């Protein structure tokens, strides 16, 4: 009798107000916001709409859970959150039969009771962290909950009467998509939330994190002033993450130290600048790659994608007297090793064109090294970079210092598309590169790059390695 069989909250269908709330709570995140406003618009035109099931996928700390709360606020609905991390018992979802001692309803029905309405926003957090054991598979039990065709009659073992979940707006969150079972993924609409760029992190810190931490520590802007340049320095040298959790911790760290200074000397006003930042946070913990100082032979700048954004890789090639062995070092994965082999074979096939001795593989051992040797690296996207470094070392032609590149290579020298273009380009821009070589098929990805960054760079869209070599090598 406690369940909200007929209680419904009225959706506030004012799109402008909803947009205002979403923008007030979150910076960026255009796609998820757009999807919520579309849902509102359709809801306004159609009286009954089956609750959509949205899956927000992105790295930790980018605001997936708080975005779901903002959705509830903008729609004027009740908000329920259950965490599925570590759940491995089917009865957690469907409830226990009443014959058992200590039987209770499943989390879905409990959530509906707590919401008190039939149409809340229901957040299923960390759906990729569920597991299964001898007590059943909770992800299979969720199939009925998350299928709009079936969830009008969701049956809980404890209640044994069908309950209608079709008005609920389910939102799930996950860090990675490949841990979610396929049938479950098929029922959800995936919205990817990428990691924030440096510029976005600085804006988030300025608008949200700094004011929040100043208030928590009893300070104001007069007492503690942190400049925009200082925030950028914190992002670059004290944090390495996709989200902003560590950034907020570092800001809190500064606020604590400032509070101590102010309590000792009540009249003091503290200005945190780039120069005195290490007084508050200690020596920088991270460094970011920068381009080479001069044009070099056999050193090419590649672009890498990591879970915490893009970075640059210097790929070095050295020739040693020997019998044609190809040495690969730098903790490279299988795919990356194969890229090096493919690049090497292609360079051998065009030796005459590059004016290289055709029997070089009988005279030299070739050593390819990717620095930061302790960090595992894998993926095909360094193919053209390794081939360019090889061509440079063998032909003794220098590589332009301000060129950075990414792309997979085939045995015929074709350049194939790769992922993570936005993050890679931003890393190249930060490092000081001026010319970026990317595969022609990745042209569509340039739309994601902020306009102010795009204007400062020259993009070369390559279909073949010959175009890459033409642009990257310095003609003597």
The biggest beta sheet is recorded as: 7 strands, mixed
Integer tally of domains: 3
Shape assignment: globular
Q: Which stretches are low in confidence, meaning pLDDT under 50 for 5 or more residues running?
A: none
CATH fold name of the largest domain, please?
Answer: Rossmann fold
CATH architecture of the largest domain: 3-Layer(aba) Sandwich
What is the helix fraction of residues, given as a range? 25-40%
CATH class of the largest domain: Alpha Beta
Enumerate the strands of the largest sheet in spatial order, edge to edge or round the barrel: 13-14-12-11-16-19-20
> Structural class per helix/strand content?
alpha/beta
Within CATH, the superfamily of the largest domain carries the name P-loop containing nucleotide triphosphate hydrolases
What oligomeric arrangement do these chains adopt?
A: single chain
- Average residue-wise pLDDT: 85
Radius of gyration equals 28 Å
N-end to C-end Cα span? 85 Å
Number of helices: 17
**Number of strand segments:** 20
Subcellular location: Cytoplasm
InterPro entries: AAA+_ATPase (IPR003593), ATPase_AAA_core (IPR003959), Lon_bac/euk-typ (IPR004815), Lon_lid (IPR054594), Lon_proteolytic (IPR008269), Lon_Prtase (IPR027065), P-loop_NTPase (IPR027417), Peptidase_S16_AS (IPR008268)
Enzyme class: hydrolase
Organism: Desulfonispora thiosulfatigenes DSM 11270
């Amino acid at each position: 009798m406690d369940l909200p069989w007929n209680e419904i909250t009225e959706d506030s269908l004012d799109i402008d107000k909803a947009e205002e709330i979403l923008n007030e709570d979150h910076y960026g995140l255009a796609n998820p916001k757009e999807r919520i406003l579309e849902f509102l618009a359709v809801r306004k035109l159609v009286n009954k709409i089956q609750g959509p099931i949205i899956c927000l996928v992105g790295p930790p700390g980018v605001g997936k859970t708080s975005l779901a709360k903002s959705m509830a606020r903008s729609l004027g609905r009740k908000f329920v959150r259950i965490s599925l991390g570590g759940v491995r018992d089917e009865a957690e979802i469907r409830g226990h039969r009443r014959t058992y001692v200590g039987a209770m309803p499943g989390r879905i029905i409990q959530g509906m009771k707590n919401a008190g309405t039939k149409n809340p926003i229901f957040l299923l957090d960390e759906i990729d962290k569920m597991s299964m054991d001898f007590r059943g598979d909770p992800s299979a039990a969720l199939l009925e909950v998350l299928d709009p065709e079936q969830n009008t009659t969701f049956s809980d073992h404890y209640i044994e009467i069908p309950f209608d979940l079709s008005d609920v707006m389910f939102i799930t969150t996950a860090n990675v998509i490949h841990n979610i079972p396929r049938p479950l993924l098929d029922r959800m609409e995936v919205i990817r939330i990428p990691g924030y760029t440096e510029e976005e992190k600085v804006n988030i810190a300025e608008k949200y994190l700094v004011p929040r931490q100043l208030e928590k520590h009893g300070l104001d802007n007069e007492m503690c002033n942190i400049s925009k340049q200082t925030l950028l320095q914190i992002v670059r040298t004290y944090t390495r993450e996709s989200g902003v959790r560590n950034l907020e911790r570092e800001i809190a760290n500064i606020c604590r130290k400032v509070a101590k200074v102010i309590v000792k000397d009540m009249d003091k006003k503290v200005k945190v600048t780039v120069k005195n930042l290490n007084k508050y946070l200690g020596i920088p913990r991270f460094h970011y790659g920068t381009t080479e100082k001069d044009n070099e032979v056999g050193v090419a700048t590649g672009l890498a994608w990591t879970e915490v954004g893009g970075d640059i890789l210097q790929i070095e090639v050295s020739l040693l007297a020997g019998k044609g062995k190809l040495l690969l070092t730098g903790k490279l994965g299988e795919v990356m090793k194969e890229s090096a082999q493919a690049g090497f074979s292609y360079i051998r096939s065009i030796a005459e064109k590059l004016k290289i001795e055709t029997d070089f593989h009988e005279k030299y051992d070739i050593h390819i090294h990717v620095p930061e040797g302790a960090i595992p690296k894998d993926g095909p996207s360094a193919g053209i970079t390794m081939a360019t470094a090889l061509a440079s070392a063998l032909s003794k032609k220098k590589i332009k210092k301000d060129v950075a590149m990414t792309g997979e290579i085939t045995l015929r020298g074709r350049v194939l598309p790769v992922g993570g273009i936005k993050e890679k380009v931003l890393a190249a821009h930060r490092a000081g590169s001026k010319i970026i070589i990317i595969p022609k098929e990745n042209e569509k990805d340039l739309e994601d790059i902020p306009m102010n960054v795009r204007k400062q760079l020259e993009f070369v869209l390559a279909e073949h390695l010959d175009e890459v070599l033409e642009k990257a090598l310095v003609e003597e």
